[in-house]
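Comment on this:
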Amino acid sequence: MERVLPGGHISGCTMLRSVFRLSRLCVRSPSCLLSRVPLLRPPVIPQCSGLLSVSRGLSSQSPGPSRVVVVGVPNPIIWIRTKIYFFLIRAYLDRDFTVEEFTDGAKQAFSFVSRLLSQCNYDALENLVSSETLKDVKEKCSVLSDNYRHALAAESDEIMYSFPGDVAIYYDDNGRKFVRILMRFWYMSYADIPDEELEGTKVFQVVMGNENVKDTKRILTANYEFRREFTQGVRPDWIITRIEHSKLLE
């Protein structure tokens, strides 16, 4: 039973043994496998409009890259709440914790784990994903078509945007301290899935030079929840306790 505070995984490196030391993640450890995955920095967000937007160098009128813009309105209550909890984590649990490092690490972890899922490489996920969550996603993946499984994979350079959707600090019945952070991701996919099967997702027709040849890109969404125990003497390892891919794994 959780008690919320008032007010609210590859041997050869530390990441491969227990993956998600996101508070001191691969950005500090060059020898780590995941640290070699290119990092995608969060886009600059216009503060005056109150809207989240992200763009890539795209153009449908001429050869070369195309342009995609994603716009959404953040929930101001959740935004303020996450800011407060991140302050509490840094002030009372881990002085070295930073949102930037966690977000970079979470994006690398999301890309790595989603690709393993698309390959049905479940053995490599045993120390990265909680046993309950891994059992659940294995059952869901077992009934997916090849196209759907392919759509699970998110390459690092195809992650369009990410942000923390919720944060919780709590104790269990034994007095152990935990932090859970739910990360939301938007990523591009070339997966060949009928549009009617992905109702609610963004679909873009990208023209690359020849107007008669079109590449269909979709922006898919996923939610990954990360948990870490902050009890004194416990290793600072993060593990994924929730995996959701909209219209694919829910």
Notes: The chain has a mean pLDDT of 73. The radius of gyration is 19 Å. The longest strand covers residues 214-229. The helical segments are 14-18, 76-93, 99-118, 131-141, 146-152.
